[in-house]
């Protein structure tokens, strides 16, 4: 079994060159610090709950590790 070879990239590099749109119903929503903290906590919780050593991402998919 081969080891994991990380490809470190910043958030800027991950998002660079991509296009994102915000749905009409969300445009008036303003993110506060607490909202950002909650998002990061949710992402980390999901990652740690779903991560299994030796698990690989499906073909054509990437895994982002925070």
UniProtKB/TrEMBL annotation:
This is Uncharacterized protein with ParB-like and HNH nuclease domain. It comes from the Bacteria. It comes from Garicola koreensis.
């Amino acid at each position: 079994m081969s080891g994991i070879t990380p490809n470190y990239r910043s958030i800027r590099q991950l998002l660079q060159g991509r296009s994102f749109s915000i749905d009409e119903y969300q445009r008036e929503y303003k993110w506060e610090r607490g909202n950002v903290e909650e998002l990061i906590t949710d992402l980390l919780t999901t990652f740690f709950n779903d991560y299994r050593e030796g698990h690989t991402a499906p073909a054509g998919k990437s895994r982002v590790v925070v």
